[in-house]
């Protein structure tokens, strides 16, 4: 619960993109929000926009890449007298290019750390109090349509999102019969800062094949799915077709196809 007595949504990666759109969507649905990201200035800008509309927004600047991030965030929430009723694990990043071509492995390991370890840690830390205290609604973990197949040229990113999908579906099954649920959000390309960090631009064939969705559209679909207690939500018909067809496409065809659309074209 927030200070107002309304339900509180704790959202990571909330300084822009899907995270910011999630903050707006949950706020419009009557939730207080706690916004988490590294940049205090960006978070304050998002929070100010929500407060102007009469919403309650808490800012928690944190680097989720550090080993103590989960414990630190848990402590920050407790110190503020807050309880998270919904956890939105949105923080994450990707990198485009062959796995062996980087100058070192720091970026790839950082991806594993943020996309997998931190998400798992926060889910454990914030769902246990919800379960034991019999409050809250559950967790929304942001995966990707990348979760449904291996991804040459983005091998670690695709694998990390496959973990998020598998973990979330299994957790949701374990939560059956309780008041909680877990949902994996699996969007395709979205117009966010993710593309810039991953060096995904218009020269990448995938961006020519699929028009990126707006973060607000994705957030609206996600929130509807979460309130309906769906286990997996894939915004967009094309994205749903891509995700579901991957299971029936022979790997000998699928992998070269995925690699081709992730390469830069002319």
Task: Tell me briefly what this model is.
With 266 residues, this protein is an alpha/beta fold.
Detailed description of the structure:
The protein is of the alpha/beta class and 266 residues long. 48% of the residues lie in helices and 12% in strands.
What is the fold's blueprint, element by element?
Elements: E1 8-12, H1 17-28, E2 32-37, H2 40-52, E3 57-61, H3 69-79, E4 86-89, H4 106-133, E5 138-142, H5 155-174, E6 181-185, H6 194-197, H7 205-209, H8 215-227, E7 232-233, H9 237-246, H10 251-262
Parallel strand pairs: 1-2, 1-4, 2-3, 4-5, 5-6, 6-7
Helix pairs in contact: 1-8, 3-4, 4-5
| Percent of residues in β-strands | 5-15%
How many strand elements?
7
Strand order within the widest sheet? 3-2-1-4-5-6-7
Mean pLDDT, nearest integer? Answer: 90
By DSSP (H or I, 4+ residues per run), the number of helices equals: 10
Shape: globular
- Rounded to an integer in angstroms, the radius of gyration calculated over CA atoms is 18 Å
Approximately how much helix is present in the residues?
A: 40-55%
Strand-pairing-aware structural class: alpha/beta
Taken in chain order, the helices and strands follow as: EHEHEHEHEHEHHHEHH
Largest sheet: 7 strands, parallel
Poorly predicted runs of 5 or more residues: none
Ends: how far apart? 52 Å
Brief descriptors of the model:
10 helices, 48% helix, globular
